[in-house]
Design brief:
By secondary structure, the protein is mainly alpha-helical. 59% of the residues lie in helices and 12% in strands. It has helices at residues 10-27, 32-40, 46-52, 58-70, 92-95, 98-116, and strands at 44-45, 74-79, 85-90. It has a three-stranded antiparallel β-sheet with strand order 1-3-2. The longest helix is centred in the last third of the chain and has 19 residues, at 98-116. The N and C termini lie far apart (44 Å).
Length: 118
C-alpha cells in the first residue's frame, strides 16, 4: 500500500529556504564562485587570479576577495619580504564548497547540451 503524500507546511518551506538564502547571499554576484574555483586549484597572487578570471577588474577582484575573506572562505597571507608578497588561498570552510561547485559544473554541462547542444 502506498504511503500518503507528505504535505510540507509554509513554516517547513521557510525553514528550508533560509540556509539556501544565506548561501546565495554570501556567494552572490558574477565573480565569487570563479574566484573560489581559481583558488581550489591552489594558492595564488592577486595578478594570477586576475589573469585566470577573464573580464574582472582589479577593483572588483579586490572587493570580492575582501568579502570572501570576511566570510572565511579565502585566506590572505602577507609574506615579510621586499616588496611585500600577498597570496590568497582557499580555507577549509571554502574548500567545503568543492562538492557544490562540482555539482553546479555537472548541471552546467548538462544544461549546455540541452539548450545549445554543446
Amino acid at each position: 500500500m502506498a504511503k500518503p503524500k507528505e504535505v510540507k507546511t509554509h513554516t517547513e518551506c521557510a525553514k528550508a529556504m533560509l540556509p539556501v538564502k544565506d548561501a546565495l547571499d554570501i556567494l552572490r554576484g558574477r565573480w565569487k564562485l570563479p574566484i573560489i574555483v581559481s583558488l581550489l586549484f591552489g594558492a595564488k597572487r592577486f595578478g594570477e587570479i586576475s589573469k585566470e578570471i577573464n573580464g574582472i577588474t582589479d577593483k572588483m577582484l579586490s572587493k570580492e576577495l575582501k568579502d570572501l575573506e570576511v566570510n572565511q572562505l579565502v585566506k590572505r597571507t602577507v609574506f615579510d619580504s621586499f616588496p611585500p608578497v600577498v597570496e590568497y588561498s582557499i580555507t577549509p570552510h571554502g574548500k567545503s564548497l568543492e562538492k557544490v561547485i562540482g555539482e553546479l559544473r555537472n548541471w552546467g554541462v548538462g544544461h549546455r547540451k540541452k539548450i545549445i547542444g554543446k
